[in-house]
Each structure stands twice: as C-alpha cells, then as structure tokens.
Design brief:
Shape: flat
Helix content: 40-55%
Order of helices and strands: EHEHEEHEHHHEHEHHHEEHHEHHEE
Structural class: alpha/beta
Number of helices: 14
Radius of gyration: 23 Å
Length: 365
C-alpha cells in the first residue's frame, strides 16, 4: 500500500461523486446530507509514466504500480465534535487515516442543496477546522488526565508531557491547529502518539464547475487557494462531474477527452502526485522478467527500510543494494548500459533512497 487518505467535507460538496470517479466505485451519491454513513474504501493504482518507460527497456510479465487507499467519510456538520449529525463516528474514522483530502464546494448549482444555504468555501473550511480542533481538545483532555497524577508527584516525563499539552491547549483555544504548533525531537514522538486530528497533512480539493477547468480561478477557488497557502498546504482544482465522465472512458478516449477540456492530467493524477508531496513520500522501483513494480517509502528512508517494504527478511538480513538512478537507467537503456558508463552503484545500510531509484537488494537470513 502506498498511503491512505480520508475524503472529508460538509454534506453535498461532491465528496462521494469524486470518490466514485477516482475508484470507479459505487458510493451512494445523493442530494441530501449523510448519503454516506459507513466509510467507503477504495484502492486505486497511482499512475506513474516512469513504470511505462522502464517496461519499454525491461519487458516483463506484470507491471505493478503503487496504490493509494481512499476512504470516503460522511459529511461533517457544525457541532460534529459534540455528536451533531453522526459526528463522533465520522471523526473517529478521520483518526484512522494518514492524511486528509478536504473537498470544498466552489460551484454554484441551485439544484444541489448546500447544508448552510449558500456557497462560501472559506466558511466551510473554517467549520471543519473548528470541529477538528474541538475534537482535539477532547483528545488532549483525556491524555492530560492520564498524566496529571504523575506530574503532581514530580515525575519528569509526566511534567514535560503536561507542559507540552498546555502549549497545544493554548494554541487550540486561539483557533490554531496542531500542525501549526512547533515541537522538538522528543515532542514529535509524543505528539505522534497522541494522534491529534489537526496534525494530519491536508490536501484541499476545490470542486469547481465544468466551465472553470482550464481557466483562471473563480473568486471562490481563489479564496480556497489563498487559505490553503496560508495554512501551508496544497490545493488542486477538480470538477467532480468531469472526473465522473473521465472514469467511464477507455484509456485512449480519456487522453482525447482531457485534451478537449484543456487538461493536462486527470484529478486522479493530481491527487496522487500532490498526495505524495503532502505525506513526504517517494517511489523506488524493482524490475525484472517476472514483474516491474513501484514501491512507496518515506523520503529519507534508508536502504534497509526500503528493502523492508518488499519483505521483512530483506530488512533484517540487508547486506547492500544495487542501485541505478532512474535517469541513468533510461539514458543508458538498462542495467548493462548503466554499468558500462559507471552509473551502477553498491550502497550500504546508511544509503538514503532517492525518488526513482531502481534497486535490487542483497541480503542473508
């Protein structure tokens, strides 16, 4: 699995329509709140043209891209942190994903009811932010209660945890997210264990009308882009209706459709690329007669950590890795050509994997 993301947003912003398009799935899309009650889960392949280029050089029986798990989480409403709508259930689903894809409605359509009566993307973003912060305050309170007794007794670790939680509590009460709170080395580990919802990376998806694609941002979309930038996050622009149409086409037809719409790539391609950036992920490849496969690791992963993605025995018994950079592999037409040009390397346990590396691991058990 590459990574997993939860799609969130207010009701009727187009979450399930986009989910259906991305996964070719069957999540119920309806013109009323809570069309999705249990989270729908889909696993989709992440397009990567580099795999195609590698397969031209190394023909193989199977080509296996990396994947992303998409969880469609039902609409959040104001008061969700207090149980409004099906708030507690939905917020618990968010806690299980690695990143948040927040769909924001930027299109006007009198036939699709907005839960708050009008289209105002910044207001909608603020509602979800507030609900997640309120839930984080609840999470914080529970953790604080667990360490207070030890802190009063002078336990050093408990005192440092309490001081950290106090800092987060102050920022939450000022309307800031956990993501905006600086933390040191040991504090990073503590915060990760607490699992604040607002510490998860966010990719904002502006769901726009068909007419806006390939054109400058509308005022609604521009407002979302500015808000995302101010928060330190990325934003992409998608039309749920168009993505739904694209999902029904054959691959060759999709390319023609994208050209006609003045689009360079589909929403799926954008989400995959930006999702990797949001989660600080990179891809390495293994190639051979049996299969050419893409693997996902966090940036700055070592050789043994990458090997462990294939099998735990590879990590435990790691000796070294045979490595060729992607550009070198393509330029010199494979392993033999790269060797002849001195671009074939043997890397040890401290090697930091680079995006696009073609790797073969040597190990002993």
């Amino acid at each position: 699995m590459g990574f997993n993301c939860g799609i969130v947003g207010l009701p009727n912003v187009g979450k399930s329509t986009i989910f259906n398009a991305l996964t070719r799935g069957s999540a119920l899309a309806a013109n009323y709140p809570f069309a999705t009650i249990d989270p729908n889960v889909g696993v989709i392949a992440v397009p990567d043209k580099r795999l195609d280029a590698l397969t031209e050089i190394v023909p193989t029986k199977k080509v296996i891209p990396t994947t992303v798990e998409i969880v469609d989480i039902a609409g959040i409403v104001a008061g969700a942190s207090k149980g409004e709508g099906l708030g507690n259930q939905f917020l618990s689903h968010i806690a299980e994903v690695e990143a948040i894809i927040q769909v924001v409605r930027c299109f006007e359509d009198k036939d699709i009811i907005h839960v708050n009566g009008s289209v105002d993307p910044v207001r909608d973003m603020e509602i979800i932010k507030t609900e997640l912060i309120l839930k984080d305050l609840e999470i914080l309170s529970k953790h604080k209660a667990r360490v207070e007794k030890s802190a009063r007794a002078g336990d050093k670790k408990a005192l440092s945890v309490t001081a950290l939680l106090d800092r987060f509590e102050k920022n939450f009460n000022e309307g800031k997210t956990a993501h905006q709170v600086p933390r040191g080395g040991e504090e990073k580990t503590l915060v990760k264990e607490i699992r604040f919802l607002t510490d998860k990376p966010i990719l904002y998806v502006a769901n726009v009308s068909e007419d806006e694609l390939g054109k400058p941002d509308s005022p609604h979309t521009a407002a979302v882009r500015k808000r995302a930038k101010d928060e330190g996050y990325s934003m992409i622009k998608i039309s749920g209706k168009i993505e739904e149409e694209i999902s029904k086409l054959e691959p060759a037809e999709r390319m023609e459709f994208l050209k006609a719409m003045s689009m360079e790539e589909s929403g799926l391609d954008q989400m995959a690329r930006e999702g990797y950036k949001v989660l600080n992920l990179i891809t390495f490849f293994t190639v051979g007669e049996t299969e050419n496969k893409a693997w996902t690791v966090e940036k700055d992963s070592t050789g043994p950590q990458a090997a462990g993605k294939i099998h735990s025995d590879f990590e435990k018994g790691y000796i070294r890795a045979e490595v060729i950079g992607y550009d070198d592999f393509i330029e010199y037409r494979g392993e033999q050509g790269a060797k002849e040009k001195g671009r074939f390397r043997l890397e040890g346990k401290e090697y930091l994997v680079q995006d696009g590396d073609i790797m073969h691991f040597r190990f002993s058990v």
